[in-house]
């Protein structure tokens, strides 16, 4: 380390990595403890069942044993990404010094932004994402932004034109005053704690800031007015032609990033493959126009919150000291959220993923592709392999090396009948290929590759680009297209004192949260149950380690939590309701309590580490416990049903877009918002009523018989009390609240009727 510290700046590593050995040791110790306790409890139940201890109602014990085994299976998979957590750091200053001393330009970056519905995805917010991407701290001539509008909305096109006009003032302002927050909405709202400006030029800064703020307010007012005039109500959302517009000025090619609006052709009779299809169109259009070796993918609500993310990503992609640098396929940044409530009752933070398990996966060859906020190599997305890409002499010359020697017929089969696109693929190995091309020929070629008829018969979506076999295109593409081909990834998590690189928005309505989780779980489970794509069947491949396969499999099978939670939410309740005549479902009281305590302790330690030991960790732990149970019997349960129906050929897994336009007042106050809740909530409300009825009825029956609770029934009593505490927001929404956001009356009535029927028939 001392030698590295004395090395010249242009020869020092551009990044660093540190294994968190104390945390790894603690994770392994807690995992071993819980595994031993769970195995002992399961073995005791199995031995008792085999010895006839379940006489009378053996099926109940068989079901509980199956539930315990399922829990142990999923929990075991979840421990793989906890095995070797690491922390990384990037040093952009070193990268800039090296670039200046070697007179070598930075490689080009194409930013791909996708939007699908101006009603659910507010246009002003989408334009903030576009403008913030244009204001990244990166050479303007090497940065291009592409906006995909799947709705073909005139409002979005108008907004893109106006956003570019605003960016012509905003981007120079950010550069001149070294503004840290490139997102104008957050900057002018006062959310940025460092708004730039040199001490010797505060007067000029204040004047410029006021001028730019007025321009931004005018932009938002014009867009709101345009929305009121319903410019997007043109009926072209489902069917419209391909349209590409370059919203740039050739004279500003070196001072301003280019902005390209793309609306691919959509027809009701042609599959469009949702987000993956839109991204593949952007890959083709950007390949024709700028052909940058790296692409940044952003959801329309994921604003750039730091101008340095591009430079930080290049610190990894261009770091000669990084092990296996030639196989680095993408740099993943965490998803963080600007409208996250401090109470976060829906566990929207996704803490277990972005603050915990992605750091562990980074120690196992890298995190999973996460849908947004990642800088990927274009040739990796095109289907290249690291062994071929590494043939280039320099990082910027190693992209797409194998395509240079591929026969024209094979390139046409893979990439389609566009000579211009095939030529751009061949030229990926040439650094000069990333120069912008804006002529009429390029626009005509771009419209060609954005048509519905372009992809059929090619490898797009199957071997090239983002893959179509799953609605979770990020997970599936990262797993099949990148990791199984030998690519790796790194996770760039900001230091506590640093700015979050990207900030998105979370759904603040419970129904939207559950629908979103159902979509994720459906897509993931479909992959897990596929004999061809199941991650556990990839263990034998050299490109993927056992722990990495287990990590992928954990998310693929997470929806199966629905089965054990459903068992634990029904069978103990129905048995307990019988009172003194109840069948004990937890014959070993000490073992049952110990397993629950070790699981809760492991979760609490995990949350405390992520929250750095703050008192808020306890609240986060409780919210995650509650939402885990709720999601298991709603989103995950319906996901299992959806996938099973698809497997038997009855239905398909759908892509349902969630709204980003809610004000979230109730969510911010820590109150569940049940507005618009559908039958998706019915299992959870029914089980909540069943649990309370069984708790009250069983206790009454025991006390009425003049006896007390036996030791065998004590674990069931604890379980029912715990379930009642977890389900309190649902019970409150059904029976105590009278506001408009309460649980719909029809769901409450159906829940009471179904719970009563279950107790009458099985209790």
UniProtKB/TrEMBL annotation:
<feature type="binding site">
    <location>
        <position position="299"/>
    </location>
    <ligand>
        <name>Mn(2+)</name>
    </ligand>
</feature>
<keyword id="KW-0808">Transferase</keyword>
<dbReference type="GO" id="GO:0071555">
    <property type="term" value="P:cell wall organization"/>
</dbReference>
<dbReference type="Pfam" id="PF03552">
    <property type="entry name" value="Cellulose_synt"/>
</dbReference>
<feature type="transmembrane region" description="Helical">
    <location>
        <begin position="713"/>
        <end position="731"/>
    </location>
</feature>
<dbReference type="GO" id="GO:0012505">
    <property type="term" value="C:endomembrane system"/>
</dbReference>
<keyword id="KW-0328">Glycosyltransferase</keyword>
<dbReference type="InterPro" id="IPR029044">
    <property type="entry name" value="Nucleotide-diphossugar_trans"/>
</dbReference>
<keyword id="KW-0961">Cell wall biogenesis/degradation</keyword>
<feature type="binding site">
    <location>
        <position position="120"/>
    </location>
    <ligand>
        <name>UDP-alpha-D-glucose</name>
    </ligand>
</feature>
<keyword id="KW-1133">Transmembrane helix</keyword>
<feature type="transmembrane region" description="Helical">
    <location>
        <begin position="59"/>
        <end position="78"/>
    </location>
</feature>
<feature type="binding site">
    <location>
        <position position="121"/>
    </location>
    <ligand>
        <name>UDP-alpha-D-glucose</name>
    </ligand>
</feature>
<feature type="transmembrane region" description="Helical">
    <location>
        <begin position="743"/>
        <end position="762"/>
    </location>
</feature>
<feature type="transmembrane region" description="Helical">
    <location>
        <begin position="552"/>
        <end position="571"/>
    </location>
</feature>
<feature type="active site">
    <location>
        <position position="150"/>
    </location>
</feature>
<feature type="active site">
    <location>
        <position position="474"/>
    </location>
</feature>
<keyword id="KW-0472">Membrane</keyword>
<dbReference type="GO" id="GO:0016020">
    <property type="term" value="C:membrane"/>
</dbReference>
<dbReference type="GO" id="GO:0030244">
    <property type="term" value="P:cellulose biosynthetic process"/>
</dbReference>
<feature type="coiled-coil region">
    <location>
        <begin position="209"/>
        <end position="236"/>
    </location>
</feature>
<dbReference type="InterPro" id="IPR005150">
    <property type="entry name" value="Cellulose_synth"/>
</dbReference>
<dbReference type="GO" id="GO:0016760">
    <property type="term" value="F:cellulose synthase (UDP-forming) activity"/>
</dbReference>
<feature type="binding site">
    <location>
        <position position="150"/>
    </location>
    <ligand>
        <name>UDP-alpha-D-glucose</name>
    </ligand>
</feature>
<keyword id="KW-0812">Transmembrane</keyword>
<dbReference type="GO" id="GO:0071669">
    <property type="term" value="P:plant-type cell wall organization or biogenesis"/>
</dbReference>
<protein>
    <recommendedName>
        <fullName>Cellulose synthase-like protein G3</fullName>
    </recommendedName>
</protein>
<feature type="binding site">
    <location>
        <position position="275"/>
    </location>
    <ligand>
        <name>Mn(2+)</name>
    </ligand>
</feature>
<keyword id="KW-0175">Coiled coil</keyword>
<feature type="transmembrane region" description="Helical">
    <location>
        <begin position="29"/>
        <end position="52"/>
    </location>
</feature>
<feature type="transmembrane region" description="Helical">
    <location>
        <begin position="671"/>
        <end position="693"/>
    </location>
</feature>
């Amino acid at each position: 380390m001392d030698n590295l510290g004395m090395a010249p700046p242009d020869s020092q590593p551009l990044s660093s990595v540190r294994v968190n050995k104390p945390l790894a040791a603690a994770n392994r110790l807690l995992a071993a403890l819980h595994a031993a306790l769970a195995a002992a409890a399961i073995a005791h139940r199995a031995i008792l069942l085999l010895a006839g201890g379940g006489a009378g109602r053996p099926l109940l014990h068989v079901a509980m044993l199956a539930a315990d085994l399922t829990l142990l299976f999923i929990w075991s998979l979840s421990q793989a990404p906890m095995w070797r957590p690491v922390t990384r750091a990037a040093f952009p200053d070193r990268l800039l010094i090296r670039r200046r001393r070697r007179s070598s330009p930075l490689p080009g970056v194409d930013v791909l932004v996708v939007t699908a519905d101006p009603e659910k995805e507010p246009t002003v917010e989408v334009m903030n994402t576009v403008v913030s991407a244009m204001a990244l701290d990166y050479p303007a001539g090497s940065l291009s932004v592409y906006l995909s509008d799947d709705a073909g909305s005139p409002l979005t096109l108008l907004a893109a034109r106006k956003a570019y006009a605003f960016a012509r003032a905003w981007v120079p302002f950010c550069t001149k005053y070294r503004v840290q927050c490139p997102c104008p909405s957050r900057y002018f709202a006062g959310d940025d704690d460092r708004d730039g400006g040199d001490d010797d030029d505060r007067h000029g800064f204040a004047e410029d800031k006021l001028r730019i703020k007025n321009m931004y307010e005018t932009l938002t007012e014009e867009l709101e007015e345009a929305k009121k005039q319903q410019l997007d109500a043109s009926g072209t959302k489902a069917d419209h032609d391909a349209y590409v517009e370059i919203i740039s000025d050739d004279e500003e090619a070196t001072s301003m990033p280019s902005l390209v609006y793309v609306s691919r052709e959509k027809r009701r009779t042609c599959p469009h493959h949702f987000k993956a299809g839109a991204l593949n169109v952007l890959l083709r259009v950007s390949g024709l126009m700028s052909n940058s070796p790296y692409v940044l993918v952003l959801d329309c609500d994921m604003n750039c919150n730091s101008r340095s993310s591009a430079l930080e990503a290049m610190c990894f992609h261009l770091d000669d000291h990084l092990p296996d640098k030639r196989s680095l396929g993408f740099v993943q940044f965490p998803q963080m959220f600007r409208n996250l409530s401090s109470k976060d009752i829906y566990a929207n933070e996704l803490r277990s993923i972005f603050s915990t398990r992605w750091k562990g996966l980074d120690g196992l060859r890298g995190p999973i592709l996460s849908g947004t906020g990642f800088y990927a190599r274009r040739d990796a997305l095109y289907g290249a392999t690291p062994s071929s890409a590494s043939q280039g002499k320099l990082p910027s010359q190693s992209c797409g090396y194998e395509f240079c020697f591929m026969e024209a017929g094979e390139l046409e089969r893979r990439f389609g009948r566009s000579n211009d696109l095939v030529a751009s693929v061949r030229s990926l190995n040439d650094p000069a290929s990333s120069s912008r091309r804006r002529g009429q020929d390029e626009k005509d070629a771009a419209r060609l590759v954005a048509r519905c008829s372009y992809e059929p018969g090619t490898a797009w979506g199957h071997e090239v680009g983002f893959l179509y076999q799953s609605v979770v295109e990020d997970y599936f593409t990262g797993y099949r297209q990148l990791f199984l081909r030998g690519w790796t990834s790194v996770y760039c998590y900001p230091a506590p004192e640093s700015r979050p690189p990207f900030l998105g928005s979370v759904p603040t309505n419970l129904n939207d949260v559950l629908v979103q989780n159902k979509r994720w779980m459906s897509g993931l489970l479909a992959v897990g149950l596929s004999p061809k794509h199941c991650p556990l069947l990839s263990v034998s491949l050299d490109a993927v380690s056992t722990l990495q396969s287990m990590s992928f499999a954990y998310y693929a099978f997470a929806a199966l939590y629905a089965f054990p939670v459903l068992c634990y939410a029904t069978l103990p309740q129905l048995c307990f309701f019988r009172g003194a005549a109840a069948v004990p479902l937890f014959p070993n009281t000490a073992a049952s309590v110990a397993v629950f305590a070790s699981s809760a302790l492991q979760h609490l330690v995990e949350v405390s580490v992520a929250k750095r030991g703050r008192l808020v960790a306890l609240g986060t732990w409780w919210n995650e416990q509650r939402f885990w149970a709720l999601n298991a019997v709603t989103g995950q349960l319906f996901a299992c049903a959806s996938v099973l129906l698809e497997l038997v050929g009855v239905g398909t897994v759908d892509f349902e877009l969630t709204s980003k336009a809610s004000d979230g007042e109730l969510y911010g106050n820590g109150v569940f918002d049940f507005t618009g809740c559908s039958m998706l909530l019915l299992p959870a409300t029914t089980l909540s009523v069943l649990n309370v009825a069984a708790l009250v009825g069983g206790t009454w029956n025991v006390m009425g018989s003049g006896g007390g609770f036996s030791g065998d029934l004590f674990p069931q009593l604890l379980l029912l009390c715990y379930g009642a505490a977890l389900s309190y927001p649902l019970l409150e929404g059904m029976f105590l609240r009278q506001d408009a956001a309460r649980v719909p009356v029809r769901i409450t009535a159906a829940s009471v009727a179904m719970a009563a029927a279950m107790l009458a028939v099985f209790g």
